[in-house]
Amino acid sequence: MARVKLDELDKVIKNRYAAVIVAAKRARRINAERVAKLELMPENDEIDIDPRKVTTRAIEELIDGKIKIGR
């Protein structure tokens, strides 16, 4: 199981509640992309789906600066 260090998250965004909202929105988009890939899976066996949880992936993207935080 992946561990996310909240100290690293505090360096990116000061308000943890705002971070939760941003990560939740990204997790929903990741999940929608995953569902679309799963629907194509019977037709194409070479589809690669990331096995990590969508929330963990969203928080990691937030920490890595891949998500732009609008104000």
The percent range for helix content is: 55-70%
Give the helix tally. Answer: 3
Structural class: mainly alpha
What portion of the residues fall into strands of 2 or more residues? under 5%
Describe the model.
With 71 residues, the chain is an all-alpha fold. The protein has one domain. The chain is 61% helix and 0% strand. It has 3 helices and no strands. α2 crosses α3. It is elongated.
How would you briefly describe this protein structure?
This protein is an all-alpha fold.
Essential attributes:
3 helices; 71 residues; 61% helix; mainly alpha
SSE diagram, text form:
Blueprint: H1 6-12, H2 16-40, H3 54-64
Helix pairs in contact: 2-3
